[in-house]
Automatic annotation (TrEMBL):
The gene is xpt. Keywords: Cytoplasm, Glycosyltransferase, Purine salvage, Transferase. Homodimer. The lineage of its organism: Bacteria, Bacillati, Bacillota, Bacilli, Bacillales. It is found in: Cytoplasm. It catalyses: XMP + diphosphate = xanthine + 5-phospho-alpha-D-ribose 1-diphosphate. SUPFAM superfamilies: PRTase-like (SSF53271). It comes from Paenibacillus oryzae. This is Xanthine phosphoribosyltransferase. GO terms for molecular function: xanthine phosphoribosyltransferase activity.
Length: 189
């Protein structure tokens, strides 16, 4: 997606050869026009797949899942990272190791929101090590729903996430694929 790549070049901050900061337009302050366009791209890519739910993980995937779900006219679900008082006992759960926070956490989805009749599209902001998306794919598998694929806004193709998902035969649609980066330099695949 050229518009996204241009924005990454203009405003992305490369903190190291592995971490890209996009806080000015995606992850903290949000460019709503761009996010709506991202939702349209994912919706178009999976238009023929009969998606019934879009699934993401709180918090940084929410705006992309919402934009995609609006374009597809289906609900979206965000997996929760913290157990809350309002949460029921019947949840699907997966343990995820966070590459940016360097800690493991458990994500949960209420069992009533995913059923074997659902066809799910998983959406997230980054594909890095793949841990978050594999965790969400595990949750979809636990529910018996079908997984149509995953949509990643930014894929860092030099990390292992893509191959981890491909090993599971999961279809991946990434809107910007970074082949390599280092402070002051970025190249797209
Ligand atoms: P994973 O390693 O599981 O593929 O990535 C998990 C999460 O870490 C992503 O959803 C994203 O929120 C965050 N993340 C991974 N790499 C980056 C990065 O380079 N920049 C930012 N801002 N977040 C990242």
């Amino acid at each position: 997606m050229k518009r996204l790549q241009d924005k990454i070049r203009q405003e992305g901050l490369i903190l190291s050869d592995k971490v890209l900061k996009v806080d000015s337009f995606l992850n903290h302050q949000v460019d709503t026009e761009l996010v709506l366009a991202i939702g349209e791209e994912f919706a178009a890519a999976f238009a023929g797949d009969g998606i019934t739910k879009v699934l993401t993980i709180e918090a940084s995937g929410i705006q992309f899942a919402m934009a995609t779900a609006i374009a597809l006219k289906v609900p979206f679900i965000y997996a929760k990272k913290k157990k809350t008082l309002t949460q029921g006992a019947h949840v699907y759960a997966a343990d995820v190791y966070s590459f940016t926070k360097e800690e493991a956490y458990r994500v949960t989805v209420d069992q009533s929101f995913l059923t074997p009749e659902d066809t799910v599209l998983i959406v997230d902001d980054f594909l890095a090590t793949g841990a978050a998306l594999v965790g969400l794919a595990d949750i979809v598998a636990q529910s018996g729903a079908s997984l149509a694929g995953v949509g990643c806004v930014i894929e860092k193709s030099f990390q292992e996430g893509r191959s981890l998902l491909e090993q599971r035969s999961i279809r991946i649609v990434s809107l910007a694929r970074i082949a390599s980066m280092s402070p002051g330099r970025i190249s797209f695949a």
